[in-house]
């Protein structure tokens, strides 16, 4: 480790430490243009809220690296409950401070921090160019390999964008709702009568649930969606949903979700679209997505760019997205490294 890395001071990233959070925000924003169109521009309210509100069933551990009073690097780990892994959510060096060993020091610190939380494996998604797609810097993969990380057997993902100025899939209107179903809209907070169904569909991805799933109290069965809502509200996000109700049974057959930050009026994140296995084959997925796009645009008329990601194995959803005009931008490849390095 060179002298620069040896002089680093690591400060925990905590919501009540305003100077450190502000320094982290500046550093994150300065580094955001490394990969154009890899993500929406950073929203200060969303980032600040993310420090206090972790995703459901996880906790966060983050630190900012300072050198001579200036923030020069940052790392953040997502720690899933009950799992041996630490997910590297962020590991970045200030653009002007690279090639001084700071990244290596951050990686070592990530290992130490993961070990402190009882984790045995670091995992991270690394961006990789798609054949015929935009160029992507190979530095992150080379950096990981040099430090002992390897491509894992975990699922790969495909990151996709839709530019509504180039192609508007809703220009012809929303397709007719299949017979026997009706659509229902809601916003950021799911109505009480749908909360259990949304939680169960979201966690099961539409497949059959274990027989014991429905035995708990209603508040517990609905808690998954409520925890997501708490995170969204805490981060200042607005969400839009459309669900399909099976008229014969009153069951929620499927739903789709999209959300956006307060600071990016032109950007939208297309989230989960799930249809229960018993209701597939009727074209509900496309109807739900297009109906929700119309829903969003009523309240967010400036939306122009929509991003989404799918597991590479989910070819039906990727094909549906491409039919809507989404263009694959990059592949997300899972890498891993043991928390205790080989000796």
From TrEMBL:
Residues 8-167, 196-343 form the N-acetyltransferase domain. GO terms for molecular function: acyltransferase activity. The keyword Transferase applies. It is an enzyme of class 2 (transferase). Coiled coil: none annotated. Keywords: Acyltransferase, Transferase. Signal peptide: none annotated. Its EC number is 2.3.1.-. This is GNAT family N-acetyltransferase. It comes from Streptomyces glycanivorans.
């Amino acid at each position: 480790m060179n002298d620069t890395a040896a002089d680093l001071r690591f400060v925990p990233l905590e919501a009540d430490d305003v100077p450190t959070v502000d320094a982290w925000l500046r550093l994150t924003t300065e580094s955001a243009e490394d990969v154009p169109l890899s993500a929406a521009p950073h929203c200060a309210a969303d980032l600040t809220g993310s420090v206090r509100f972790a995703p459901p069933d996880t906790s966060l551990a983050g630190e900012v690296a300072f050198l001579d009073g200036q923030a020069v690097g940052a790392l953040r780990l997502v720690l899933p409950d009950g799992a041996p892994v630490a997910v590297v959510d962020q590991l970045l060096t200030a653009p002007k401070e690279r090639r001084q060993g700071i990244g290596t020091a951050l990686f070592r610190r990530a290992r130490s921090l993961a070990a402190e939380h009882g984790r045995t494996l670091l995992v991270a998604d690394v961006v990789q160019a798609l054949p015929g797609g935009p160029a992507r810097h190979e530095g992150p993969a080379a950096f990981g390999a040099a430090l002992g990380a390897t491509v894992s057997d975990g699922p790969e993902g495909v990151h996709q964008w839709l530019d509504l100025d180039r192609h508007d899939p809703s220009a012809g209107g929303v397709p007719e709702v299949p017979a026997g179903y009706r659509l229902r809209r809601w916003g950021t907070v799911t109505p009480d009568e749908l909360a259990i169904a949304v939680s169960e569909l979201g966690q099961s991805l539409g497949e059959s649930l274990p027989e014991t799933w429905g035995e708990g109290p209603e508040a517990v069965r609905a808690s998954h969606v409520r925890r997501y809502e708490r995170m969204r509200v805490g981060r200042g996000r607005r969400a839009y949903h459309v669900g399909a109700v099976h008229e014969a049974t009153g069951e929620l057959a499927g739903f789709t979700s999209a959300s956006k930050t307060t600071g990016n009026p032109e950007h939208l994140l297309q989230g989960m679209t799930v249809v229960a296995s018993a209701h597939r084959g009727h074209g509900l997925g496309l109807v739900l997505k297009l109906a929700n796009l119309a829903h969003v645009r009523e309240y967010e008329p400036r939306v122009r760019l929509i991003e989404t990601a799918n597991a590479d194995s989910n070819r039906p959803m990727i094909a549906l997205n491409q039919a809507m005009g989404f263009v694959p931008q990059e592949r997300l490849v899972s890498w891993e490294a043991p928390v205790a390095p080989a000796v």
